[in-house]
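Support reply, case 0932

Customer input (verbatim):
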Amino acid sequence: MRACLQRVAHARVLLPEEGNRVSGQIDRGFLVLLGIGAGDSEAEVRLLAKKICALRVFDDPDGKMNLDIRQVGGSILAVSQFTLYADARRGNRPSFTAAAPPDLARRLYEEFVSIVRTEFAVPVETGVFQAMMSVELANDGPVTIWLDTDDLGRKRGTPAE
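Our regenerated output:
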């Protein structure tokens, strides 16, 4: 599972095919572009949700990135994004074969949202799964962090399994 995490002052998702209806909107928090891989399971969902909610990338009173999203009363805008699994190593047209099939991806995306809301008590807004969306954001910092569950939990310098 992969996430492109952006600390935002505000963000929203519009649905152009529905007259730019807003499907999700937050103020301070994270925009999480979430990619589900073909081999992902609930274990990866839990690992990523825990990591995102524990990341200390919000400023404390001294201006140091030392607070997590719960400590600043932030929210998450979660947007499913299969293109995070694009493989562009060959040719100019990316392959998406490493992305999860839609049924699995939808289930794990919804599980991510549920876990963040219930187990970590962080408010979550969402995009619309498989819809054409316009994402607007004000990146705060900017702070953008790439997370991949294949890399989490290993000590620095150890090879992937």
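We compared this against your earlier run and they match. Two observations from our side: The chain has one domain: 2-148. DSSP finds two helices and eight strands in the chain. Please reopen the case if you see a mismatch on your end.
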